[in-house]
Specification:
single chain, mainly alpha, binds zinc ion
């Protein structure tokens, strides 16, 4: 099985690095939701717009957005 984002071999949905990035993303969204009324999609777009987002996180966000539409 290959990571859904890159082509690395993995036994789960994502490779180790993208898995970590995905976890961070979900965790951050929980905090975000408490402070702001933000949809998952809006949140992901914010992540992409934020120049300080890490490369891995961006790739995961991009992938997740593509899955929404
Ligand atoms: Zn990957």
């Amino acid at each position: 099985m290959k990571c859904k984002i890159c082509t690395k071999e993995t036994t789960t949905e994502y490779c180790e690095l993208h898995q970590k990035a995905h976890e961070n993303l979900v965790q951050k969204y929980d905090n975000w939701k408490k402070a702001l009324e933000t949809s998952w999609e809006e949140y992901l777009n914010e992540i992409l717009k934020n120049q300080y987002s890490g490369v891995w996180v961006r790739e995961v966000a991009k992938y997740l957005i593509s899955q929404i539409k």
